[in-house]
Amino acid sequence: MSEAATAPRELRDSELDGPALSARLARIWGTQRSIVGWLSSVDHKVIGRRYIVTAFLFLFMGGLTAIVMRLQLAQPESKLVGPDTYNQLFTMHGSTMMFLFGVPIGEAMAVYLVPLMVGTRNIAFPRLNAFSYWVYLSGGVFLWISFLLNIGPDVGWFAYVPLSGPEYSPGKRADVWAQMITFTELSGLAVAIEIIVTVLKQRAPGMSLSRIPLFVWALFVNSFIIIFALPAVMVASTFLILDRLIGTQLFNPAEGGDALLFQHLFWFFGHPEVYIIFLPGTAFVSAIIPTFARREIFGYLALVLSLIATGFLSFGLWVHHMFTTGLPQLGAAFFTANSMLIAIPNGLQIFCWIATLWDGRPVWRTPLLFVCGFFFIFVAGGLSGIMLASVPIDTQVHDTYFVVAHFHYVLIGGNVFPLLAAIYYWFPKFTGRMLSERLGAWNFWLAFIGFNVAFFPMHISGLMGMPRRVYTYGPEMGWGDLQLVSTAGALVLFASFLVFVWNVLASLRSGAVAGPNPWGAGTLEWATASPPPPQNFDHIPVVTHREPLWAERGGLPVVTGLSIRHRELVVSSVAEAEPQLRESSPAPSIWPLIAAVTVGATFIGSIFTPYAVLWGAPPIAAALTGWFWPKNTPEDEE
Amino acid sequence: MSTVRAEPQPFEPHQARVTRDLSGLPTYGFGPKSPMWWGTLGFFVVEGMGFALALGTYLYLVQQNPHWPLAPIPPDHWAGTLNTLLLLASLWPNLITDRHAHAQDLGRVRRDLVIMSLITLATIALRLYEFTGLGVRWDQNAYGSITWVLLALHLTHLITDAGDTLVLTVLMFTRHATGKRFSDVSDNAFYWYFVVASWLPIYVAVYWIPRW
Amino acid sequence: MTTGALALRLLPIALALPLASCNLVQSPLNPVSPQARDLLWLFWLFTAVLAAIWLAVMLALLMSLRARRTFGADPLAVDPRRESRAGILVAGLAVATGLAVLVLTGLSFAGQRRLFADEAAAVTIRALGHQWWWEFQYENADPSQGFNTANEIHVPVGQTVLVKLESTDVIHSFWVPSLMGKVDLIPGRQNTLRFTAERAGVYRGQCAEFCGLQHAKMGMLVVAEDPETFARWREVQSQPRLEPATDEARAGERAFVAAPCSMCHQVRGTRAAGHNGPELTHVGSRRTLAAGTLPMSRGNLAAWIVDPHGIKPGVNMPLVKLDPDELNTIAAYLEGLK
């Protein structure tokens, strides 16, 4: 057997036990306590934590832009901001929420939790993971610095041509938007591949497909949607940059190009994007409901199939964003049917969750409160989505505040409420301390009431004829009162986030100590200390049930035989999770950061001159070679 | 109040029951056993989507315009045809490289990698020459733009594969040429199949649809 | 209080709100054409069905939150009979969901066919989108009877109007909700829409696709009037401008033609023949200025000429230096172009 090239005298975890083993593994898997060590970390928990904190910072920034817009619209003919600032604000709001918060937050939670839930020691391709984070951070910082320098994009988060093209958007603003897309999509794609491979190949022995936690299934399907959808927006933004910078004519109708082409490419990504944002929400809900209903999930198989069906169907809906562009009527009707069809798997999920609660004994804690808020808001948003799926109805409500109301019900209901539930749920795992339940209740009720007061009236504003993306309106239009109510609601919603931040900061210092499994939950992340040690698990567990901690009351069975000389993890088969390899896992490295810096400099440089791509290529190649070149560490030589 | 200390009892670490010892498992594998193989497959999907959408754009523009190509003559296809033949012919040495990597035959793998490096460099040179025969500039009209985009998009894949192959070739001549590197060589060969396969529809679109 | 109870309490308030407000100058809730009425009916039908579904789901959620599980503390212990009953129920609900969306899809498709039916049109108008105003060209078999106007169209009650939509720059969207749903104006394409106003009145519309800096101030008016009034209006519009009647207006015309104004604006019957800005031959007959931004009056005309960028920042109309006399006479002249 040529593959079994192991040293004859290798230190194994079977030779140590208890605290000695823990300490040794923690040393091998740990992140050095120095600036270089911090910048070189490849620990999925360290990077996941950075991802989560960064995404929340962007959520906060996006929220601030929303508040300024709400104040501007609170009364007719307000002079708080002018059209130029307002157009930048709503572009920044949409771009930040979709690209810097919406996609990354689901991936961020996955980066932290998926390896724990599947019982492995690190994510697949950990250096790529570090690289993705730095690229994401640079993209976000780049966008916001541009905004502060008054070259923030002002063409909407959708950047339709020809408005965003060379003729109608001179200057660098639209380029900033397009390159921010390149940054964030690159990192999003990389993380999606890491998660797919982690789920396929690094599951703990015995975690066959039917024992994968629903949380992991949801983020796994989500990663597939990402790798099929995100290339479309990268193609769209790249074509836009080419049209703007080197004079291609792809979107110019005068030279054989086509303006609607951009919309097709953008929405081929843009509709799946909604599910990229929503599927992590379902992941959180599916993890939280069994724990607080105190029974296993009802309809596991139906839920998995719903996720997969949603993934497929999400690619057949994009034209419903283009119903007013004058496409052939029969084609448009096909997309109506498809858009409505997706209600079936989504409905099925809701029914299964309610059935689980129905047969359970609900334990009232903040995560369950937020999950109930999710049901209330998301179901309403999903149903108003059915109205938008109808071509004739859409011609009246498209691009009005009705749509603004609808998608905030979907996105805040389907992502942010489950996310807050998830933070209350996993905060003890992340930090070892509980969040305050009292502040949690305040947080929930302020968010719930604020949200509905802010967004419900927008349905009516839309029906009263108020279009989206207007910086002002005349008093004679009669929208002022409703807009004022919306602004008041938005302020309450914002206040709820201040309560949240307060809760997090206070609990970090003085929250109750959590212990490994404060909620008595059943999945593997609760089988290790809170916060988890660098190696996640001292011994890799063997999984015998979908809820291993509920099934194995006497302690989890484990496997041994992994190295304690260097980083090693178990690679298992795709379907049955039968162990196949003891593969080494990369050690920390500064090269991913260097590579991200060279890539970022090239992207930003290319806005100013196409030759930046040529100048940037050698440093990028050097950084990548440095990254992959063996360093004489035991990990590399295995 | 803040914790649910109800049944079942919190799980205690260190109560581990050992059910199996994995020390006999190999430390690397080939093909679907290797996570890197799956990662490569993931990148195929991403890049394949990029190709598919660029090709879709090409066909969309063909259908939007009453005449195609938007140039007096279709592109000269000889350099492209030659390149296509070279790419197809390279599948054989690529297969051989993969086989020798599986057999962990260092001497032959070194030779094969040198051959594959030269082939990738030759296809890049030919590709650069292809641009001269297109008969249209990228900024002339949408036809020129999408033709250049398709060729350039594939060129970037040739270049990244060439870089990857060259680094691996050098690596195999150093003392690091052990064990897992053979798996890397195999994954690199896997990637080349994708580079060749993705070229064929582009070849048809760029050189033959304008002649239709 | 539970979320479900809150939902029940919010709902009537929510439904009452639109009825309480009565300013529906630009609203799908105030339909005056068969097309818009059909749309509103479909909207309320969907709303009723979907609201009922939402209420049912919330009710189920509310009931599910009562602790009713009585057996064992083990979260993995389930009663197989209850499980299979629940399975049948959930499957039945999924099938019901499927049926509901099937019916709604059918209703939607039927509505779509009615909405976009090809009908012979009595009046054909070519609408050209500009950043940030509307150019309207009334087509006529006899080209001398055709004419251009801006930001305001008149249509005859009871007759079908065909609007051909094109854009000269970026994407805009033509939306007069009382008459018809919106359709986009896309460079390089021509879209169409049809409507038939059933009641005389003035209906406001607005660009509904973000089109740049002044997207917010790209309004228009549709004036529906009885066919005789419309025919008279049409006759007047197709004529050259009214001869200025006063000395002041005559001075205004001289100043207008001499000033840079004439480079962008046309006034038929004078040497002013620019095409970059709105046609002004009968500007004084329009109800608003600057694409629905200001009511038409002599004072507003002067204000607009003096400070276009204060009223509509970023507008393409440049600031033209005029002395106060010229300004006054030009405003008087334009106001007189009925």
Automatic annotation (TrEMBL), chain A:
UniProt main location, coarse: membrane
GO molecular function terms attached to this record: cytochrome-c oxidase activity; heme binding; metal ion binding
Residues passing through the membrane, by range: 51-73, 93-118, 130-151, 176-200, 212-242, 274-293, 300-320, 332-356, 368-389, 401-427, 439-464, 484-505, 590-614
Pathway terms, separated by semicolons: Energy metabolism; oxidative phosphorylation
Reactions it catalyzes: 4 Fe(II)-[cytochrome c] + O2 + 8 H(+)(in) = 4 Fe(III)-[cytochrome c] + 2 H2O + 4 H(+)(out)
Signal peptide residue numbers: none
GO BP annotation list: electron transport coupled proton transport; oxidative phosphorylation; respiratory electron transport chain
Mitochondrion recorded as keyword: no
Top-level taxon in the UniProt lineage: Bacteria
Chain coiled-coil ranges: none
EC code(s) of this entry: 7.1.1.9
Domain named Cytochrome oxidase subunit I profile: residues: 32-544
Entry annotated with the keyword Secreted: no
Gene3D superfamilies listed in its UniProt record: Cytochrome c oxidase-like, subunit I domain
Membrane topology: Multi-pass membrane protein
Subcellular location: Cell membrane
Listed CDD domains: Ubiquinol_Oxidase_I (cd01662)
Single GO cellular component term: plasma membrane
Matches recorded under SUPFAM superfamilies: Cytochrome c oxidase subunit I-like (SSF81442)
Family according to the record: Belongs to the heme-copper respiratory oxidase family.
PANTHER family assigned to the protein according to its UniProt record, in alphabetical order: CYTOCHROME BO(3) UBIQUINOL OXIDASE SUBUNIT 1, CYTOCHROME C OXIDASE SUBUNIT 1
Function, as annotated: Cytochrome c oxidase is the component of the respiratory chain that catalyzes the reduction of oxygen to water. Subunits 1-3 form the functional core of the enzyme complex. CO I is the catalytic subunit of the enzyme. Electrons originating in cytochrome c are transferred via the copper A center of subunit 2 and heme A of subunit 1 to the bimetallic center formed by heme A3 and copper B.
Protein's name according to its UniProt entry: Cytochrome c oxidase subunit 1
Automatic annotation (TrEMBL), chain B:
Gene Ontology cellular-component terms listed: plasma membrane
Top-level taxonomic group: Bacteria
Start and end residues of each Heme-copper oxidase subunit III family profile domain: 36-211
PROSITE patterns: COX3
Family: Belongs to the cytochrome c oxidase subunit 3 family.
Transmembrane segments: 36-61, 73-93, 113-129, 141-159, 190-209
Membrane topology summary: Multi-pass membrane protein
Keyword annotations from UniProtKB, A to Z: Cell membrane, Membrane, Transmembrane, Transmembrane helix
Protein name: Cytochrome c oxidase subunit III
Record flagged with keyword Cell membrane: yes
Organism: Methylobacterium oxalidis
GO process annotations (BP): aerobic electron transport chain
Family annotation (InterPro entries): Cyt_c/ubiquinol_Oxase_su3, Cyt_c_oxidase-like_su3, Cyt_c_oxidase_su3-like_sf, Cyt_c_oxidase_su3_a-hlx
PANTHER family documented for this protein: CYTOCHROME BO(3) UBIQUINOL OXIDASE SUBUNIT 3 (PTHR11403:SF2), CYTOCHROME C OXIDASE SUBUNIT III (PTHR11403)
UniProtKB/TrEMBL annotation, chain C:
Name by which UniProt lists this protein: Cytochrome aa3 subunit 2
BP-aspect Gene Ontology terms: ATP synthesis coupled electron transport
InterPro entries named in the record: CcO_II (IPR045187), CcO_II-like_C (IPR002429), Copper_CuA (IPR001505), Cupredoxin (IPR008972), CuRO_CcO_Caa3_II (IPR034236), Cyt_c-like_dom (IPR009056), Cyt_c-like_dom_sf (IPR036909), Cyt_c_oxidase_su2 (IPR014222)
Principal cellular location given in the protein's record: membrane
GO molecular function: copper ion binding; cytochrome-c oxidase activity; heme binding; oxidoreductase activity
Domain Cytochrome oxidase subunit II copper A binding: 120-236
Entry keyword set: Copper, Electron transport, Heme, Iron, Membrane, Metal-binding, Respiratory chain, Transmembrane, Transmembrane helix, Transport
Transmembrane residue ranges: 41-65, 86-110
Keyword flag Transmembrane: yes
Membrane topology according to the record: Multi-pass membrane protein
Domain Cytochrome c: start-end pairs: 247-338
Record's GO cellular component terms: membrane
Source organism of the structure: Methylobacterium oxalidis
Sequence similarity: Belongs to the cytochrome c oxidase subunit 2 family.
Lineage of producing organism: Bacteria, Pseudomonadati, Pseudomonadota, Alphaproteobacteria, Hyphomicrobiales
Subcellular location: Membrane
